[in-house]
Amino acid sequence: MDWIRVIATYMVFFYHCSMFFNPFPWHIKNELLNSSYILIFSLFVGTWIMPIFFVLSGISTKYAMQKRTGKEFLRERFIQLGVPLIFGIFILSPPQVYIERVSHQQFSGPFPSFIPEYFNGLYLEIGGTGNFAFVGLHLWYLLVLLVFSVVCMPLISRVKIKKDSFHMGHYLLIVLVLIFISYFFTFVSLGGWGILYYLALFVIGFFYFSMDSFNNYLNKYWIKISVLAVTMSVIYIKWFISGVPVQYGGLAFLFTTVKVLSSLNSVLLFFYLASKYLQRRDDFLNFNSIFSMPMYILHQPVIVLIGFWIYQYDWAVTIKIPILVTSSFFIIILSYQLFIKRIPALRFLFGMKAKPPNNMAIEPMMKG
Predict the structure, then answer these.
(1) N or C: which end of the chain has fewer CB within 10 A?
(2) Are the beta carbons of 146 and 82 closer than 8 angstroms?
(3) 3-class SS shares of the chain: helix, strand, coil, % to 5
(4) Is 81 part of a structural domain of the chain?
């Protein structure tokens, strides 16, 4: 799970770098957009990247609840999720909203003059009129996970799955539930999926993917999982590029089915590959298990800032991609090494524990 979390965090970083170049609305866009290989990458990663975080959160919550009472668990979540979220809302989000408003010709003037404007209206969408980013922009995951932890506490603390035997029947039930939710409940869409879809994945991770027999299922059906993941992903990407069907109707239902099968089986394939090839803990994993939470919090503000610096330059996309990726990562890791991990107040704001253990990595907040 640590390997999955670390790799997924890096994929979020690359995904948000791709948002600077693809045709989708975003806070800052390059002058020249790419509707070929970057769009394909964005569509592929976008189907499973946030779902895998909510599945991981469900599984990790199961393990956490074995060592904590419900009150201890929620108190820990309020501190380790709420503090970075508030920090993001009031410190990291204002510059991003300012850059969006300036680049979209919705505001002119220096950043200090925008600060009072930040509290005018709620930020609800890219290019909207409200400025106050009450969900912390990309940190909406922390808010949603905090809400899920509170709402689901009565369920996860009382309901028990008696038989620990994950099988094909469970898989089919999960597929049907996810298709139903994804098709009929599309309100509050974040990261490409409705909020109830993420809630379902969180619960599924807690009750089903945390089973000891889950890996046995993956080992037994990994070929079918791989074929479905690849086939459904190719169909979904080609279909999306050619034109998404209208919201309701037979074609829309079929499109939803393809998207869900692509997402779910990609997540399962990710778990299978990690369980087979990523069992060892090394220095890279130890470092990134600690670094992943600060990186998640800091990556988008830095990408938006670098994007704002280069977006009007008449450079080829192939030149801007390495500039955006390398310079953003350099700033993030330098900030972490020089400041975040060394200053107790910053450790607290970035969801890290005050003092790391001597012989093991800190348990990052994104485990929960």
Answers:
(1) N
(2) yes
(3) 70, 0, 25
(4) yes
